[in-house]
Amino acid sequence: MVIARTLHELRELRQKMNGTVGFVPTMGALHEGHLSLIKRAKMENEYVIVSTFVNPTQFLPGEDLDAYPRKEKADLEICRLAGVDGVFVPTEQVMYGEDESYLCAPRIRSYTLEGIKRPGHFDGVLTVVMKLFNLVKPTKAYFGKKDAQQVMMISQMVKDFFLDVEIVPCDTVREKSGLALSSRNAYLSAEEKERALALSKSLHHAIKLIKNGERDTDVIESEMLKILNDVDVEYVAIKDRLLNEVPSITVGDTVILVAARVGSTRLIDNMWI
Ligand code: PAF
User: Fold this and answer.
1) Is 204 among the residues known to form the active site?
2) pLDDT in tens, 199-212
3) From the CA of 126, how far away is ligand 1's center (Å)?
4) Whether residue 222 is found in the same domain as residue 268
């Protein structure tokens, strides 16, 4: 497995890859969720490249950029064991310069949901993903559905800029308890982890209501809020796959999303219906 730290090293690695390349962009602190993306990329491509870069431009002032878990040694070992061909581990200086061009995520849809509390977050995500795509030139790129709005913003960018890469949204991996895996779960105490289960429980309750024939989004949202009474809810939302408001559920084109703080940790979860 090649570890590329500079643009030159990455380009050299990429040039040697004669075939399809699956790309898994991450911010490191790899867990089973990332591993499932890597496994899928390995199944569907001749080569796999993973990047582990904690991208500063997607963190707002006061967010957890400094505290964000950094586990380079363990990440490289996970990638090696998973049979990854190359890992890109750049520094901020490698990825960014002074007074650079910067991408704007769609102004309306990037300022809803996550964008309300994290304005500008998706500009940073799209900018770094565009840089990474241009360097890695992947055939397919793999993203977790847990970051539903991110998957939608990136898919939109690929469409808008005519990029030649296929975006593959992958199912969320959960603990047995139902808690969606996230690098930020590391911040939770045992008691907070227990309370955090309200997020997945509220989503499961929504699914149950839908299975029983309920279609009204207001009714489902208010039922979900009852289960979320012990966490600090930021939003509960039911949208179509393009993040438009919908008055009622259309199976095959709906995402139910929730974001909440548990203690000082901000968690998100969702289910695609
Ligand atoms: O989902 C993430 O880990 C990050 O937002 C990404 C896509 C790697 C961009 O920094």
Assistant:
1) no
2) 999 999 999 999 99
3) 9
4) yes
